[in-house]
Amino acid sequence: MQPNMRQVGATAAPLLTYSLTTDPMPVQVSLSSTSPSIATLTFVVSCPKSTKSATVAAIEIILPVDEKGIEDAANLCMVEPSLSSASISSSAGDVWIPSSAGPGASGAFYFMPQAGTVLVTKQSLTIEFTGIEVNTLVGTALVTINEWAVPGSGTPPTPDDNPSGQQFTAVAKFPYGFYAGNFTSDRPMVKKGDPKPPVLSWTGSSNATYLMLYESNAVDVSNVQSWSPLNQLTQITTFILQVSAQQEDQDQTATMDFSITIEVENPSLTAQDLTVLTTSTLAGPVNVGTSETPANLVVNGDVQAGNNLTVVGPLNAHAALNVTGPTSLGNDLKVSGAGTFSGGLTSNNGLTAGGVISIFGERQKLAREITLQARTASSWALFTLRRRPPFTRISLFLVCRTA
Question: How distant, in Å, are the alpha carbons of 314, 325, 328, 352 from that of 333?
């Protein structure tokens, strides 16, 4: 089957990933229609680990082309590329066939497996467009990628249907002769708090704006080609060099980013969410929240303390509480389940238990009184132990009521 029109309507992202490189990097606009700049676009297509595998029926790539000699900064091509400019190969050896989308679909190319469908797992596809004549206007062109695929070994839709996935890939077009790159660091790793920061360097044309972006900072580095952060690094940090350029007498701007990540030995860690799938060992003190901004710690399982467990505020246990060592309470203790204390228990404040209390050990130092309360659906009893002067006897008071 030969598709003869462009398909639209996909709302989901493609199952496969499409990584683009260009030659030159960055793409440069043409000086004129008679002196075109030539570019090559290469897409490396692969199946991400999260998808595992996908059965693919077709891939369409649409290069935006100027129509009727009218140039647009949002277009990439000055003239429509020929079918011979498009090629595709597979690392697994499966055969794919490129084809043009037909009349009314300028710049659109289909790539379909000769066998009808292909299961993409670990192999990669390389799609290349050569001899692209870039138009003369600086700006950003969006290349459309449509995909007809299903996860696993199912039956994918055909190009007669709307694509199952779609994405847009930006291609920045810089002024003719523009160059930028070689973004590097003199050290890939630093020690935490090292007073000697890493030195980042790059090359590039002078007729551009260069911004260094990292953490929440944006530093204008347009007048230099090497730079170091003012603050000491305490965590792994990614630096983004954002390069923007305009052409004279044009309003459109072309922008591209270079990035580099500096590792930090024994870094600090700041995260919105942290998921630990296996055992985690914390060798130092752990603070949850601050005195100004309290925070809650919720543990949906057992908590074991190999040494002292200190609670400054109330301690509420909504399940069984088992203590095998001496216990001192400077504040309230509320246990909704069974409480077991295999060592001493000292309370300088209230002690409330809604379940059974078992104390296996020496009971001493009854400061004033202990009140124990037992309830059923129809009655309750209140036991009070009081230590009276001269502190040589203990009195027991019992009150019982029936509802």
Answer: 6, 16, 10, 6
